[in-house]
TrEMBL record:
Description of how the protein assembles with itself and partners: Homodimer.
Site entry: Important for catalysis: Y146, K195
Role played: Catalyzes the oxidation of 3-carboxy-2-hydroxy-4-methylpentanoate (3-isopropylmalate) to 3-carboxy-4-methyl-2-oxopentanoate. The product decarboxylates to 4-methyl-2 oxopentanoate.
Boundaries of every Isopropylmalate dehydrogenase-like domain copy: 4-356
Pathway: Amino-acid biosynthesis; L-leucine biosynthesis; L-leucine from 3-methyl-2-oxobutanoate: step 3/4
HAMAP family associated with the record: LeuB_type1
Molecular function via GO: 3-isopropylmalate dehydrogenase activity; magnesium ion binding; NAD binding
Binding-site list for NAD(+): G285, S286, A287, P288, D289, I290, A291, G292, Q293, G294, I295, A296, N297
Name of the protein described by the UniProt record: 3-isopropylmalate dehydrogenase
UniProt: substrate binding residues: R100, R110, R139, D227
Keywords associated with the record: Amino-acid biosynthesis, Branched-chain amino acid biosynthesis, Cytoplasm, Leucine biosynthesis, Magnesium, Manganese, Metal-binding, NAD, Oxidoreductase
One Gene Ontology term, aspect cellular component: cytosol
Reactions accelerated catalytically: (2R,3S)-3-isopropylmalate + NAD(+) = 4-methyl-2-oxopentanoate + CO2 + NADH
């Protein structure tokens, strides 16, 4: 099968880690007789340097014509980079916001997985960790408080700020359906998180989720208030499979979930629209302080590529190969500097990619 992939190397360590992800994808293509055609486009600081803006209309069109987008990291050092002397709409991150809006990427997936070999990095007690955890935070990305009407005004010497949290049933239904679809590919459990004891928007959220759940009789689902969910993530993270929630709650809970893994260099992410199309990127930043040194961890980007195979291309077996190869390599003791442990073998960015390729191909 042939797939067209738009590739955004980005800034900082982005080009280095994307190169290794492409290397791993090419190994999968060789093993399973697929063809991955890559078209590179600029975004972020790299685009500002060439075009004067963080994202061009031409780059957006390339992405729209592709089957998926694979991205590294964008941005630089906010205190020293000349990009951050520009107005907010001209800075690197503005390109990502524009791309998400242009591609209608409303569903954000952030897996939080505790690998057996990295349990020592988890900040939770061993008795809480148990057999580990593997959850997916499904966050609605284009609605809610972050996109509602807002204002700040002064009246009688008193400043008042206003932010509006709005969802309609169609926005909720499409993210709920995507959450249940993802659960069908995993352990068939959904925890829908809201604040229905206080908010009208959450009561509507709960009503629509219950309607959607009727179409997925194989999936077990439950409702949980967001404050309880925040507590449960550090009390018993192993209970979760898919956490389905709105924009602000998802923003907070996904950061909490990622930190209990203890290894941000391992965290992949995806943003999907209402088709199979998606944008896949690591959850970490561009790390400009180590760019070009060959020591960056490429695993989050490689795992993001595995998510692309699974969710945009329906290549579950190929995605499993990549994920299992990562586990095998970690079990063999190979580590980049950010996840290095005593008694393990330190490797660089390129070497980690090479080892994964050999593992996938059985060499």
């Amino acid at each position: 099968m042939k797939f067209n992939i738009a590739v955004i190397p980005g800034d900082g360590i982005g080009p280095e880690i994307v190169k290794e992800a492409k290397k791993v994808l090419d190994a999968v293509a060789k093993k399973y007789d697929h063809v991955f055609d890559y078209t590179e486009v600029l975004m972020g600081g790299a685009s500002i340097d060439v075009h004067g803006i963080p994202l061009t209309d031409e780059a957006i069109e390339v992405c729209k014509k592709s089957d998926a987008v694979l991205m590294g990291s964008i941005g630089g050092n906010t205190s020293t980079s000349p990009w951050y002397r520009l107005s907010p709409d001209k800075r690197p991150e503005a390109g990502l916001l524009k791309l998400r809006k242009s591609l209608n990427l409303f569903a954000n997936l952030r897996p939080a997985v505790l690998y057996d070999e990295l349990k020592g990095a988890c900040p939770l007690k061993e008795e809480i960790i148990g057999d580990g955890f593997d959850m997916m935070i499904m966050r609605e990305l284009t609605g809610g408080l972050y996109f509602g009407e807002r204002s700040t005004k002064e009246e009688n010497g008193v400043m008042t700020a206003h932010d509006s949290l709005t969802y309609n049933e169609n926005e909720i239904r499409r993210i709920a359906k995507r959450g249940f679809d993802i659960a069908m590919k995993r352990s068939k459990k959904v925890t829908s998180v809201d604040k229905a004891n206080v908010l009208d928007s959450s009561r509507l959220w709960r009503k629509v989720v219950e309607e959607v759940a009727k179409d997925y009789p194989e999936v077990t689902y439950e409702h949980m208030l967001v404050d309880n969910c925040a507590m449960q993530l550090v009390k018993n993270p192993g209970q979760f499979d898919v956490i389905l929630t709105e924009n602000m709650f998802g923003d907070i809970l996904s950061d909490e979930a990622s930190m209990v893994t203890g290894s941000i260099g391992m965290l992949a992410s995806a943003s999907l629209n209402d088709t199979k199309f998606g944008l896949y990127e690591p959850s970490h930043g561009s790390a400009p302080d180590i760019a070009g040194q060959g020591i960056a961890n490429p695993l989050a980007t490689i795992l993001s590529a595995a998510m692309m195979l699974r969710y945009s291309f329906d290549l579950d077996k190929e995605a499993d190969d990549i994920e299992n190869a990562v586990k095998t390599v970690l079990k063999a003791g190979y580590r980049t500097g950010d996840i290095m442990q005593d008694g393990k073998t330190s490797v660089g960015t390129v070497e980690m990619g090479d080892i994964l390729v050999k593992t996938i191909l059985g060499e």
